Input
Amino acid sequence: MLTSVNLRAKLVFKSKIKWAALIGLILMIVSLLVHLLLANYSNVNLLEYSAMASFSEDFTTKSVRKSSSMYRKLWGVMTPLEPLQPYSNPRSIYPAPNEESTGFIYAKIFGGFEKIRSSICDLVTISRLLNATLVTPEIQESTRSKGISSKFKSFSYLYNEEQFIVSLKNDVTIVKSLPVKLKAARKRNEFPTFRPKNSASPSYYINEILPKLKEAKVIGLVLTDGGCLQSILPPSMAEYQRLRCRVAFHGLQFRPEIQVLGRRMVERLRAWGLPFLAFHPGLVRDTLAYHGCAELFQDVHTELIQHRRAQMIKQRIINEELSIDSHVRKRNGSCPLMPEEVGLVLRAMGYPPNTIIYLAGSETFGGQRVLIPLRAMFSKIVDYTSLCSKKELFNIIGPEEPLPFDMFQMPPSKSDTQLKNEWNKAGPRPRPLPPPPDRPIYRHEKEGWYGWITETDKEPEPSLMDLRMQAHRLIWNALDYIVSVEADAFLPGFHNDGSGWPDFSSLVMGQRLYEIASSRTYRPDRKVLAELFDSIRDDIYNPKHNWTHAVREHLTQSLSEEGLIKESLFSKPTSFLSHPLPECSCMVSSSGNPNPVRDVNGRLLYGGEDKCPDWMQRSFSVSMKETEVEQGEVDETEPIIYETDSDNSEDSTSKNNTTLFFDRDEELDPND
Output
């Protein structure tokens, strides 16, 4: 009897569960239908997600007035340098080029963006010195053999050739190519060719090159050192220095497509309504190898730097030991500031985490891994890839021939005996160990840009894709150059390195100094900063107030006349374009004109510039009045930039910026 009652109770309970489940299912269906009807007939406008829109929203901040002390401290111009104005026009008797030239000069230029720009300026200057006709230089990084678009020649791939010829017609006669007969003779190697050093003197060209030019009527120059004329010329040749400025800052204009996209990038940065800082790390393999900075990196990057350094020693570019203490070199200021150190310096200066930083430099040795600490401190770091669409970048490169679908070739197989011998002869590491003989070799282990170093001591020849990417890198550097010159502030990670080669940061700093001398261009002394970092090495993320004050004082001094004098002492002897003062500037009359400063040899370092023409004086006075009016309007109406919860006083700013905690983590790219 009890069993039947229990059985009936269980059946009733199960039926109730079924009914409850059925009712729940019906309610779910009804709810789904209601939501579908609401989605179809509702008048509510649904917003679609936009990556660019969310990116710009992320850049919105609370406002601080443009006239505030914080804004002036971080972005304001250097008032004492405002009287310096760009003026590279001839100032003495300067005849047009003689119609009867002594002959033609053609040139091949090897190297990257910096060497190309500096070499072209020297070539024009030498052509003027020898009264020769210059053939448009051939940039070897962008020849047709590199796989670039067929619509460009080597020079026009980067620069506006028509602008180059027309803007310098009063200085030098420039032609696009040799006459047909001479071109055929060049193919037969009938003309003498020279390889001048970047420290060649004017007397070398007058005494050695000019007689050969008059005799053969055509000579060739091969430039590999980033120039072919010494940086500092005698005072009597000041007009030739001004010619260098006219070439670099007026004649050498990028082709229109590059200029348009570069200006568009600047406009997109300005559209956020915030000032931005440009930073160039300067981490280039050749420069790091030259100075022996291998130990600052890890794993395969150290080995790659040492491999390149061994090549330089063999080529007698440097006369030093292969293995040296990189940390000693860094304390001497010979190695770059690492991105992590740059982030700490900027935070010590008072730049908040939401500062917009444009990362220049198409090649950062070490990849994104070395940038992770900087990105942890400043979340709003952008580069050309985040400001331009893929279509814009594709259009600026132009149509290119497709490469073979699969260019990868497996290396020839080795016998067990060969593998065993290689394993025994591998010697002391840091070179990564090759895989054991019994382990299969996968394709991804051979295909990387550094995969060769696990197999051989000889670096393979660059592939067609590598050559094409090197040509593309010229365009990316040009875009970075445009943005860096226009930035509200610029900070170099590695400039004036003493190698004698021109570098990207120095060229940017020189053009900013020429165009607007009062712009905020930091000129840090790496030796001073290395000493400061050594003093807090045990706790770099919690420095004391006196350390923060020392960093601020040093960088502020680098912006002023004192920084210009140091830059003239150390940078100008290796690259005139990095410091084109006083030859390419003039001074508007004011009560605070500086006294001339000279070095021990009597060379003018700062001050003593010529007086600007009257029309420039009047223009400067009008612009200063307009600036005062605009500042008055800004004081009342225009707020801008940063969110901050502290006062603008020095003490409160220092307190908030000396205690830094970074808990943001980013995933490492295993293929980096």
